């Protein structure tokens, strides 16, 4: 399906089923980015909104206090109890998802735009790279779906926030507890990240004509530095 018969809905299916084909079409249709952008943010925001209205909130407050280091727990407890309310927590999460999504996409698009200018020199504008960043992150909807599955299959509504990250390295491999050195790092790195890196690598190669090895290095380098440096510090 090519040309006028290929739509944004075809691209949303093909980014999973036939990513090379989808990415070639996406390059030609920058305005399509609003569909995956809105769907991704709505899914992630919907998960957090549902969670904060479902979870046993008094339990969650006390669980949050228990995760504070012992030496700071007493002085932090009152502030946490005063700040944490279902509505406040929900809207804080939603606003953070929207803001950080735009920030991350903007920074990544700037990096890819600069890398292309300096290394490969293909005629690709910043807006196209922003669209590229949004589309390659579209598979994040599967992370949100996994979070909903965790909620719907939970034995009770006493479920910590980190349990929603069913596809994280911590849930799958590391199994670190709150407060342990690798907990935040392993909870932040998920299978969705690796899927996104794969899409970015083949997408950069398709868009610029660079070989796949160079494309993989360019696509993954910033994230390797971030997570590698973070791992070294913990």
Helix count from the secondary structure assignment:
12
- By DSSP, the count of extended strands is 0
What is the terminal separation in angstroms? 48 Å
The residue fraction in helices comes out at: over 70%
Biggest sheet overview = none
Structural class: mainly alpha
Record keyword descriptors for this entry.
single chain; 234 residues; mainly alpha; 0% strand; globular
Explain what this protein looks like in three dimensions.
By secondary structure, the protein is mainly α. It has one domain (9-233). 75% of the residues lie in helices and 0% in strands. The chain has helices at 8-17, 19-28, 34-54, 57-66, 70-83, 86-120, 126-136, 141-152, 169-174, 183-188, 191-208, 212-233. Helix 3 runs parallel beside helix 8 and helix 4 (57-66) runs antiparallel to helix 5 (70-83). The longest helix is centred in the middle third of the chain and has 35 residues, at 86-120. The protein is globular, with a radius of gyration of 20 Å.
Question: Could you provide a short overview of the structure?
Answer:
By secondary structure, the chain is an all-alpha fold. The protein has helices spanning about 10-15, 20-30, 35-55, 55-65, 70-85, 85-120, 125-135, 140-150, 170-175, 185-190, 190-210, 210-234. The protein has one domain (about 10-234).
List the helices and strands and how they pair.
Layout: H1 8-17, H2 19-28, H3 34-54, H4 57-66, H5 70-83, H6 86-120, H7 126-136, H8 141-152, H9 169-174, H10 183-188, H11 191-208, H12 212-233
Helix pairs in contact: 1-2, 2-7, 2-11, 3-6, 3-8, 4-5, 6-7, 11-12
């Amino acid at each position: 399906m090519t040309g006028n018969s290929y739509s944004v809905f075809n691209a949303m299916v093909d980014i999973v089923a036939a990513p090379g084909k989808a990415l070639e079409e996406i390059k030609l249709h920058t305005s399509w980015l609003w569909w995956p952008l809105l769907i991704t943010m709505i899914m992630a925001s919907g998960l957090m909104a549902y969670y904060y209205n479902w979870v046993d909130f008094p339990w969650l407050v006390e669980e949050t206090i228990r995760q504070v280091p012992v030496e700071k727990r007493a002085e932090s407890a009152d502030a946490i109890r005063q700040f944490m309310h279902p509505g406040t927590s929900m809207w804080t999460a939603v606003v953070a998802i929207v803001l950080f999504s735009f920030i991350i996409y903007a920074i990544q698009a700037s990096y890819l735009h600069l890398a292309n200018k300096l290394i490969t020199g293909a005629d690709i504008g910043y807006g196209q790279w922003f669209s590229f960043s949004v589309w390659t992150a579209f598979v994040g909807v599967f992370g949100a779906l996994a979070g909903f599955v965790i909620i719907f299959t939970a034995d009770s509504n006493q479920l910590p926030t980190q349990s929603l990250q069913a596809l994280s390295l911590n849930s799958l491999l590391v199994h670190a507890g709150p407060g342990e050195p690798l907990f935040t790092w392993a909870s932040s790195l998920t299978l969705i990240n690796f899927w996104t890196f794969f899409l970015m690598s083949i997408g950069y190669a398709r868009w610029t004509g660079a070989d796949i090895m160079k494309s993989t290095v360019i696509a993954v380098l910033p994230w390797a530095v971030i997570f590698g440096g973070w791992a070294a510090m913990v």
